[in-house]
User: Fold this.
Amino acid sequence: MTDDMLDRLVGKLDLERKVRLLTGVTTWRTAAEAAIGLREMVFSDGPAGVRGEAWDERRTSCLLPSASALGATWDEALLRRLGGLLAAEAVRRGVDVVLAPTLNLHRTPLGGRHFECFSEDPELTGRTGAALIRGLQEHGVAATAKHFVANDSETDRLSVDVRVSERALREVYLAPFEAAVDAGAWVVMAGYNGVDGTTMTAHPLLAEPLKGEWGFDGVVVSDWAAVRTAEEPARAALDLAMPGPASPWAADLVRAVRAGRVPESAVDEKVRRLLRLARRVGALGDVPRRRPPLPDEGVRRLLRHAVAAGAVLLRNDGVLPLDPGGLGTVAVIGEHAASPRVQGGGSAGVFPSAVVTPLAGIRACLRGRGRVTYTAGPSTDAPPEPLDAGRCTDPRSGEPGLLLRCLDAEGRELRAERRLSGRLLEPELAPDTHTVEIRALLRPDTTGAWTFGIGGFGRMTIEVDGHVILDGTYPRETDDPAIVHVTPPLHTATGRLERGRHVHLVARRELVPGSGRATVLAAAPPRRAPDEALAEAVEAAHGADAAIVVVGTTEHDETEGYDRTHLSLGDAQNDLVRAVAAANPRTVVVVNSGGPVELPWRDEVAAVLLAWFPGQEAGAGLADVLFGRREPGGRLPTTWAATLADAPVTRTRPVDGRLDYTEGLHVGHRAWLRAGTRPAYWFGHGLGYTTWEYGEVDAPARIEPNASFTVRVEVRNTGTRSGREVVQVYLARADSAVERPARWFAGHAAVRAEPGGSVVAEVVVTPRALRHWSSRDGGWCVEPGTYRLIVGRSAGLVEHETDVTVGHPPEDRNA
Ligand code: BGC
Assistant:
């Protein structure tokens, strides 16, 4: 169907019908219009998996590693395959548009959604995101580049006004979106935040450069509930207000057009774009349903491979890889080994059907070969976990799970069903439901003071065997949908339980308008006495041939809607690592976090491996790396500070509503290099299991402006196993007439070689790397002259330097 045909379809609709299409009919669906053969289109989060329309633990989805882990792969081919997997999941769930990838940057380590973004670097983010977009869309499922733009932290995210220079915007924050549009993205999401005084859903940037200069011909959708007024976003280039049916557009846009305040041509253009999207995803006309394009290699195998490909080995004194045949006993230690965090918190969450824990992965690998012991060590300060079917039974059916009941104002049951989790985010409610009730029979496995938690807003109570232990009214103090509907704060109380003696838990939440959809019932056993738990871990480490300690962040630390306040793993975990390392020189620490954490013991342990939030195949992929079945493939997508105090850019808190990006272009490794300070680990750093020698570098001495060029770097595998090396190219310009980053990332190539083998890495540097934005000229410029070309293994580890001279543009030469 050509664009002319789309125009004819638009012409068939009157104003009301057109406007009706521009707001969702539900939280996740757009409207259908039978008169023109348009069906509803289904949207779903993204990016760690495709949840589908329901927040329901019974409808499971594949869970990928977090975006920070994918950013660490530096592997566009893998990202494309993972995009294909997301497409398969989307088709399976009847989803047309996946709300991924997130292309905001790791501007500060404190960003609450750091785990959901790829990198600190615009070039790496753009390439990674573009590959994922291609992988999704080549199967007819739309990708969504989000959140346009400068939505890099969470504090006051609905209202924050980001102040950022035009040049930094163009070169740093808009750049990944430009790459996404180049890759053909069909949808872009406008963020909640404002930039330079205008909220993004009504921002002129949607028109220029997005739709004009870059030629984006898809749909600009609002972030969920980000449209707050009818006219400005309608006059601006926003196309679709989500969710629905309530939205300022639904009620007011027709009136505004009739009164001449919004031109009807603007509405037509939005509808045309929506129909183009529908055509692309097969929602227009009589198109047969697509079949899921399953990855050839099998889903679990692909996800397992992705875990290893993103795992970053920060340090290794030779202990890794462990020899699975040569180990008597391995001591696995730490709560995260048995209960890893496999995904970050917030709208990206999905329900995996099963998770391979690090402990299970290690056990599977050593089965029949070595003995594995497990000790949890001291408890972290994690909030209680939502109850699940593994720990309690539904008192009515006696089956594993919990009983959800909808009650009317008199307490009469209107509806009931068994659920598998105490985290009920969008339960199906009967009409007239006044109270949501969750009942569970809990079998305590420990005696002592248990902590119970209830999450949600409004009046809530918890009873244990008929005794009320919590009764409070918690008014909603935010409009943020991710907090109201997904991660509401938990309120806790304690109660003493005895091991093996069942207790009947009843949690109730009264529904009042605006109190959100989520109700969460959580419970945690008493904390172990820290000294005892530590002593147990030390003893286990002592008697083992190697110790693997898994430490990580908690849901407190990394979740949408909140920024982090610190980067510490907490005393309990830091003390644990130190004590275990003192007891066993062969101590490997696996770090389970979505973003940077402080590793104060990093030089005292034999190896440090970053697992990120590894997704459902966590333990399988990690065991592959730990026992040498695979190399750790990851390189840091973001510079890690030794301490938060060292990090050059940390501010996330707006002042008087404004968040100034005063660092301008100097984000990530650029900021460290400018300050002349050393991080703990540089952008690009990561070890494999072999060693490399860098040889000859072949780069053109002179290049034309606006032309790509190739840098050829010979590398030789000097180790004893085959491996993959990520060769990186940076640029610098000391005597520039314009302000420049001290050094900026320009491109990379990954190569493989067998032991003793040499291979040439070909790094293509695109014209984008040599251009800068001139606000004075309102355009891109290339400064002629000599640039320093740096070949490195990270932003801080230089292997080779040379000069490359950029000629004058042809028009200057003729002058
Ligand atoms: C998030 C988006 C997400 C949307 C729908 C918003 O709160 O910022 O990333 O796609 O919710 O869940």
Summary: The longest strand covers residues 723-732. The radius of gyration is 27 Å. Residues 385-524 form a domain with the Jelly Rolls fold (CATH 2.60.120.380).
